[in-house]
C-alpha cells in the first residue's frame, strides 16, 4: 500500500479522500489555488502546496505543476477526485511517465469513454443498447440538422466531451435548430475546449439509472448495484438514491451485467459508473460511462457497507477487489441530497458569498432521545462556517446522505435532517430540497428526469407569510441586539419599568409581504402584535443566537441570525429571511433604479443580441452572460426600446452591474 498520496482536487471530494487515507494510515498532500488558501481540504491534509491563481486552468488543471508537487513531496500516487483532471487521459499518461500511480483507470479506457460519441460507437459494437441518434464525426451544421430531422423532434444536442449537464440543448422543432446548435457549441468550447456535438432522440419521462462498477488488475469486475439519479434540474442531479425504487432483481442483474460488459470492453480498472437512461417500461439504453468516482458514490457505500475510496486505493496498489459479486448485498435504502449555493426560485441561478452562519444537523435525533447514528447519517462537505463559495468553482456546499432500513425511513430522516440545516450568507436550495423530499411525486417514487418541471406548483408554492412566532423571534433578537452589553433588562426590571408602555413599531419585509409589528414594552415581557394576531411574549432563554420564547401558552424555539439588515429566523424546520426596514436609515433613499438590467452575478458577456434603439418584446434575449461555466440569458422584463448597451462581448462584469438601459413602451 502507498504511504503517501497527493489529492489533485478541492472541496468535499478532497476531504472525502483524505478521510479514508487517514483511516488507512496513508499521508496526504493537498494542492490548492490562491482562492483556497484557507479552505477545509488544505486544513485536513498532512501537507498542502500552493499551485497557482484561482482560475482552475491556472491551478487545479495544471497537470505539470501537480506532478512536480507529487514528486517533490514524495507521494507515490495521485487521486484526482472527480471533475478537474479525473478524466484526462494525458494526465494519467503523464503520471505513469513520472513514475506515479494514477488512482483511476488506464489512460486507454479514459480515452475510449472520453468522447460520448466515440463511446457510443464502441458500445454499439459490444451490443449495448443505445438511444437512436447521430454520433458521427462530421459536424457540418446542415448535416446535423438533417440528422435531427431524421431522428424526429424533440431532439437532444449534447457536447460530445460534455459532463455535469453542461452543453446540452433540447430542440423542439427544426426552426430552432441552428440557434440551439450555436449556443450548444459555444458552451461546449468554453467548458470543454471541444465543440463537437451529438444528437439523439429526447426520451419522454425517462429515468436516469446508473450502475457502479469496480474492476481490478487481476481481471475481476463487479457491479455494486444501481443508483437512481432521475431528480435533476438543468440536467444536473439533485437527489440520488440506491437502490432504484421498483427495480426487479432480474432487471438489476441485466443492467449490472451490461455495465460490466461495457467496462470490460474498454479494459477498465478501478471505480467507474455506467449511466443508462431508462424508459418507464424498464427498457434501458447506454448513455455514457464516467471513468472516475461519482459525486453520489456515498449512497452505494451506505447500502453495500463499503468504502469505495478504500477500494480505489487497494486496486491502484495492485490488490484484488475486496469482495466478489456473490458477496455483495443490498442493505436498506440510502438517499443523497446535494446542498447547493443557488436560488431555486430564480431558475437555480448559482449564488456566491460567505457562509456567515452554517449549522449542520450533526445532532439529528433519529430515534426519540437517541443521538445521530453515524451509519445512518453523513455529511460530506468541503466548506465550513466562514468559508466562501466563489465564482471559480462548483457551487456545491455539501452532500447530505441518510440511510434507512427502507425508503420510507430514509425519506423521513432526510426531511428531518434538512429541517435542521441552517445556512446564512448566500441562497441555498435547502428549503427546496425539503419540499422535493416531501413532494407527492418523490415520496411516491413517481420518478423521471422531468419531476421538478412537472411539479412546479407543489415545489414552488406561494410564500406563506411569517407567523407571529417568527416575527416575535426577530423582534426580540432585534431588541436584544440594541441593548448595550452588561445591561440585562430581564434580570433587573428597572429599565423596563421606566419604559413601561413604551411602544415600538418595527417593519419586516419578506419577498412579497410587509409586516408591521407593534411591540409594547411591559414589565418582563412584551405585547407583540402583527396584523390581527397578538400575544404576550416572554423570553424564556437566550444562548447566543438561540432564543426560546413563551408566546401566549406556546413555547417556541428558534435561531435568529442577523446579517446586516436581514434577520434569518430558523424555527420549526423553516427558514424565514426578514428584511428589517429601519425607517431612519432608509429615509430619503432613491427610488428603485427602473429601466436598468443588472448582472445577476459576476461573469463574462458572451453575446449581445440587441443594439441601442432596438425595439424588443417581453422575454426577448438581450444579453448572454457566462458565469460559473454556464450561460445565463438576460431577457427583456417587458416590451420596450433598448436605450443603451453598456458592455460588449468579452467584457467581465461584476454582480449588480447595469448591463443595458431600457425604455418601457
Ligand atoms: P452529462 O455527462 O453532462 O451528465 P449525460 O449524457 O449523462 O450528460 O446526460 C445528463 C442527463 O440528461 C441525464 O441524466 C438525463 O436526465 C438527460 N438526458 C440525457 N440524454 C437524454 C435523452 N436522450 N433523452 C432524455 N433525457 C436525456
From TrEMBL:
Residues 120-317 form the ATP-grasp domain. It holds the Pfam family Biotin_carb_N. Residues 1-457 form the Biotin carboxylation domain. Residues 587-663 form the Lipoyl-binding domain. Its cofactor is biotin. The keyword Transcription does not apply. Keywords: ATP-binding, Biotin, Ligase, Nucleotide-binding, Transit peptide. The keyword Transit peptide applies. Gene3D superfamilies: 2.40.50.100, 3.30.700.40, 3.40.50.20, ATP-grasp fold, A domain, ATP-grasp fold, B domain. GO terms for molecular function: ATP binding; ligase activity; metal ion binding. PANTHER family: CARBOXYLASE:PYRUVATE/ACETYL-COA/PROPIONYL-COA CARBOXYLASE, METHYLCROTONOYL-COA CARBOXYLASE SUBUNIT ALPHA, MITOCHONDRIAL-RELATED. This is Acetyl/propionyl/methylcrotonyl-CoA carboxylase subunit alpha. It comes from Undibacterium parvum.
